[in-house]
Amino acid sequence: MRLSELSRRSGVATATVKFYLREGLLPPGRRITATQAEYGEEHLRRLRLVRALIQVGGVSVAAAREVLAALDDDSLDHNERLGTAVWSLPHGRPAGPDEAADPATARRRADRLLELLGWGYGPATETTPPAYGMLVTAIAALERLGYPCTVEDLEPYARALGRLAEHDLDLVERYGGTPDEQVEAAVALTVLYEPVLLALRRLAEAEESRRRFGSH
Amino acid sequence: MRLSELSRRSGVATATVKFYLREGLLPPGRRITATQAEYGEEHLRRLRLVRALIQVGGVSVAAAREVLAALDDDSLDHNERLGTAVWSLPHGRPAGPDEAADPATARRRADRLLELLGWGYGPATETTPPAYGMLVTAIAALERLGYPCTVEDLEPYARALGRLAEHDLDLVERYGGTPDEQVEAAVALTVLYEPVLLALRRLAEAEESRRRFGSH
């Protein structure tokens, strides 16, 4: 398909598609004349993923480029590609100015939690996923703002998300036929389900608060 | 305590504390001289909440002011204040430019899900919480980006978050002695646990992907 059809089918403006091409977020099409190129279904899929990352996930262009590089890295096996792409997803919200406070306590807590779960990360190393750093920062913020949490407080959340991860991966297998499509689906679904989860949590809390404190 | 001590104990720069006072995010202290005011523990608590909202939650100053107004509204009973404060929490990430696409299908799906759960919202009305709009937008984004989800796909997430909400409210009761403190804790914990949840989800997915596709 031509650029105009790619734009129409994806709902992304042609100027934006051209911007993504220039920024290397979308591979170039197959050139057919000096001024025209041909795009395939893989471009459409990739374009949807880029929009999920940038528009829903709040990920920067530079960070999206890194995630896509992990996704396209042929030197990794399927599991490694999938894990690396999801791990390397940056947290959309930039850390606050003093989030750099020493997170030693938070780090120990995160390590003990992961050990308890048997999630096999152990203390941080070079290959520690960004999601681990995100967890440490979040635990440190709770501590700093007067709501210290113990490993026991965190465990129910981790167990519940562990069970939901099975469901997440079932969806990945459903949407992704080929290994390439599966890796793309894993990244897109990770990002796209985040606001679903956060919204459902707030509704669930309001419901539980009504049950517990409601007068009617 | 004086402003300098409030700043020291909260870890928030005096210039920032003054900015929050000017913006009405922090109630004024008790004036003791023409140039000095006295602040109490309630100021410290409120300051921590404001930082949770703005720095961790990515909420704007204007939106934080609205949440705090719901929290201070004496015309509401405890459950209503708690529910309203959590409901009125805006989603930190601004919606993308075309998130305004007709969400009729997404809305029907959200309504059927809430009905199935018995969460008692029914179709959107004037008092529908922002979290409902956040859910509809998130479902519409999944649909638009080629990953349509059914009510059955969403149900396991909702059930899991429903169970976690009991745990959330246990924490609220533990941290909040007085009803005022409970409402503040509910808002702070809702925001502060969001990155914890998202980080644990990514780690859980990587773990599940290793189990399912890993070669070692």
Automatic annotation (TrEMBL), chains A, B:
Residues 1-70 form the HTH merR-type domain. InterPro entries: DNA-bd_dom_put_sf (IPR009061), MerR-type_HTH_dom (IPR000551), MerR_fam (IPR047057). It holds the Pfam family MerR_1. Keywords: DNA-binding. The keyword Transferase does not apply. It comes from the Bacteria. The keyword DNA-binding applies. This is MerR family transcriptional regulator. It comes from Streptomyces cinereospinus.
